[in-house]
């Protein structure tokens, strides 16, 4: 985790149930090609539903389409971590 000199995390990412990821703090957004995306502010909401017209940013479309996702990470059936097909074994 990146930290500032004060011991605080440089950026904080908060998941919201059925909504976006809220990113606060000192962060850099990049495209898959490595180009920097100017967020225009210090706090941004990133789309999780995939339907936003302004991706990677959230435009609230998740409410209109009934997007559902928990605020907590999915730990899988054994509670140990990511259990999607092809994910590395967390053991």
Distance between the termini: 21 Å
Query: How would you state the average pLDDT, rounded?
Result: 83
Q: Structural class of the helix and strand makeup?
A: mainly beta
- Unreliable sequence segments: none
InterPro entries: FeS-contain_CDGSH-typ, MitoNEET_CISD
Protein name: CDGSH iron-sulfur domain-containing protein
Biased composition (Basic and acidic residues): 71-91
Keywords: 2Fe-2S, Iron, Iron-sulfur, Metal-binding
Can you offer a commentary on this structure?
5% of the residues lie in helices and 20% in strands. The chain has 91 residues and is mostly beta strands. It has a domain at 11-65: Ribosomal Protein L9, domain 1, CATH 3.40.5. A hairpin with a 5-residue loop joins strand 1 (11-15) and strand 2 (21-25). The chain is globular and about 35 Å long. The model has no long low-confidence stretch (mean pLDDT 83). Residues 68-91 are annotated as: Disordered. Residues 71-91 have a biased composition (Basic and acidic residues). Keywords: 2Fe-2S, Iron, Iron-sulfur, Metal-binding. This is CDGSH iron-sulfur domain-containing protein.
